Amino acid sequence: MRTLFTDKLSLTYPIIQAPMAGGPTTPELISCVSNFGALGSLGAGYMQPDVLDVTIKLIKEKTDRNFAVNLFIPSYAEAHPSSLEAMQKVLKPYADDLGVSLPLPTKPFVPNFDEQMQVILDHKIKIFSFTFGILEPSWVRALKNEGITLIGTATSHLEALELEKSGVDYIVCQGKEAGGHRGTFIGDPKEALVPIFSLTEACAKHVNIPIISSGGIMHGEDIMKSLKHGAAAAQMGTAFLTTDEAGCSKEYKEALLEQKHDETALTKAFSGKYARAIKNTFTHEMQPHEEDFLEYPIQHVLTKPLRDKAKELGRTDIMSLWAGQRAFLCKKLPCKKLLEKLAHECEQHKHLLD
Fold this sequence. Notes:
Number of helices: 14
Radius of gyration: 19 Å
Structural class: alpha/beta
Mean pLDDT: 97
Order of helices and strands: HEHEHEHHEHEHEEHEHEHHEEHHH
Distance between the termini: 13 Å
Strand content: 5-15%
Number of strands: 11
Helix content: 40-55%
Shape: globular
Largest sheet: 8 strands, parallel
Low-confidence stretches: none
């Protein structure tokens, strides 16, 4: 199971638990993965700096192994008052149904990125990953000076080339099968929907740094196929959502476990950025309004009261149920049992590398 990735980061397995922002990546989940010899990751994109600081401390109490912290590259967004009010009107029936108000978003729409980064430096985090773009050169230099490993996210070989030029150490190739937000930052996200193994091969061919496969990877066989196609590791998100340690609601986990085939779709309804989720009433009814969705992260801020209340009430018809295309393979397992299963399956399929 040794690869360039495991050797460099002192891991036993070339497996990364994906950094899923919004709550799934609890200190318990991250520490379990890292303690097993894989790489746990904190999805911290939405975390205020003080919350990020406390969360990192909690993880460090549970593991002395390396783990990654992931942030979103900031994006500039504006919305005309009339567009804001129009979308507020579209969302009002859902707000009334849930009994919440929808205040118009005001700046800043997201946590301060520089302050988040300072927390990472202060804690001497060894591995930093990011998505939605390219890290500014000044931050690349600052992190490199501290010996921090950098992992960027690409959805095409063109993005992979740009990330390599920027100075990252590894590139996560996000295939079309992946759940959650698309990391596309060059061109139309709908044109960057490449199947994972095709994307892995294309990126491995065009860049000279190690590649990490991500998207629809659910079994050890998928991990070994990733290595065969040129990856140094595989990143898995959806498979970990139904573990006991994941910070998803009971209803969210049940929705994943009830899947019988691929029932996901790409939607901008929740955040203004394309993301793969299990189809529900909200995604279906919002489809006709796609041209009116506000830019990310403004749409995300506007719909947050809806998503929070829906989660509280267990209303899966309105919740954002992020999931990959192979969510129907999810199992209800403790994190360690899932990792043991994956390790066993990898061993069973080692012949794929012959």
